[in-house]
């Protein structure tokens, strides 16, 4: 059986054809442009390849409710050309195959659980800190869905006492994403994250915000591993700062061997998969389980 897989990202789409064993046979990367340009390229890639099913991990918000008339439709995405674009319906109509759709971060969590840094546990969270902040959750073979996919990047956090930045989220100003995603770093400090590497107070504040979020996710979801990726997490000095803050904020309340100074390095970790995480996760989504 041949399966199609798409990682739909804000900057690029990764298209793949693979097997139901999880092997990618063929791959192509195309830039995310206007849907009128990008979508015909997607259809052309898959046409004639004989795929039986298609899995899509999409940037969001995206409708992932299978019962909905607008399944696979983009919603209030900051990529304005894509607002309300019916990605799922368009691909289904053109390729005539069943489609499975989930959020990009849910798919990444699933991929890490299958092949990456969470293969030894039954539950994990995957958080990306990049242009936005989003998190997906994998629990015992499934990703977490409800009304839609979770939007863990938009929770409220307590302000750092030294932070006067108003916040960059177009919907909530100073939610977590508004205070801690890449654009917030750039607007608050006047330089991109990659140019702020040596400034300790930048990363101390960043860790303070991200650790609050992780602490809340631990209280609510109790994941057995937390994987942190995205451009901003390339600042590896963030990891020890976040771990230290999480332990302080939890203050010993949740009893787990993972939540100790000795083990927390194995609890809050970088991704195990790099470039293929999204497309492999989408392939897994396409498998008939
Ligand atoms: P996307 O979110 O579009 O998928 P990324 O995860 O690469 O892409 O996130 C891009 C954001 O991350 C930008 O705001 C950028 O400034 C920031 N960023 C990228 N690389 C680094 C780095 N090495 N250190 C700090 N910030 C970075
Ligand atoms: Zn927000």
What is the CA-based Rg, rounded?
19 Å
Number of β-strand runs: 10
What's the helix count? Answer: 8
Integer average pLDDT: 95
Order of strands across the main sheet? 3-2-1-4-5
Bound molecules: adenosine-5'-diphosphate, zinc ion
Distance between the termini: 13 Å
Bulk shape: globular
Describe the largest sheet.
5 strands, mixed
Low-confidence residue ranges: none
Structural class: alpha/beta
Brief characterization of the structure:
This protein has a 5-stranded mixed sheet with strand order 3-2-1-4-5, sandwiched between helices. 31% of the residues lie in helices and 19% in strands.
Could you walk me through the main structural features you see in this protein, from its secondary elements to its overall organization?
The chain has 289 residues and is an alpha/beta fold. The chain is 31% helix and 19% strand. It has helices at residues 35-46, 87-95, 104-115, 176-180, 182-189, 200-221, 238-250, 277-286; strands spanning 2-8, 12-19, 24-31, 53-58, 99-103, 123-129, 133-139, 142-143, 226-229, 268-269. Strands 3-2-1-4-5 form a five-stranded mixed β-sheet, sandwiched between helices. Strands 8-7-6-9-10 form a five-stranded mixed β-sheet, sandwiched between helices. The radius of gyration is 19 Å and the shape is globular. Residues 9-11, 130-131, 182-183, 192-194, 230-232, 234-235 line the site of adenosine-5'-diphosphate.
């Amino acid at each position: 059986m041949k399966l199609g897989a798409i990682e739909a990202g804000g900057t690029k789409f990764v298209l793949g054809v693979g097997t139901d064993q999880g092997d990618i046979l063929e791959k192509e990367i195309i830039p995310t442009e206007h849907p009128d340009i990008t979508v015909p390229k997607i259809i052309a890639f898959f046409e004639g390849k004989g795929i039986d099913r298609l899995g899509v991990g999409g940037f969001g918000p995206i409708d992932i409710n299978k019962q909905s008339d607008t399944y696979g439709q983009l919603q209030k995405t900051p990529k304005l050309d894509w607002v309300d674009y019916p990605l799922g319906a368009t691909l289904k109509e053109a390729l005539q195959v069943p489609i499975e759709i989930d959020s990009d971060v849910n798919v990444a969590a699933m991929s890490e659980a299958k092949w990456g840094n969470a293969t030894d546990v039954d539950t994990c969270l995957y958080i990306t800190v990049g242009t936005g902040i989003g998190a997906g959750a994998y629990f015992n073979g499934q990703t977490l869905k409800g009304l839609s996919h979770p939007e863990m990047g938009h929770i409220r956090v307590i302000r750092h006492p030294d932070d006067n930045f108003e916040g960059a989220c177009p919907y909530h100003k100073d939610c977590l994403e508004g205070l801690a995603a890449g654009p917030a770093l750039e607007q608050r400090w006047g330089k991109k994250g990659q140019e702020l590497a040596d400034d300790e107070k930048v990363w101390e504040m960043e860790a303070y915000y991200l650790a609050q979020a992780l602490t809340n996710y631990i209280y609510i979801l109790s994941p057995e591993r937390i994987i942190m990726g995205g451009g901003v997490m390339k600042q590896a000095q963030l990891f020890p700062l976040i771990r230290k803050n999480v332990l302080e904020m939890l203050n010993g309340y949740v009893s787990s061997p993972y939540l100790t100074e000795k083990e927390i390095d194995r609890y809050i970790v970088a991704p195990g998969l790099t470039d293929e995480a999204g497309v492999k996760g989408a392939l897994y989504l396409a498998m008939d389980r």
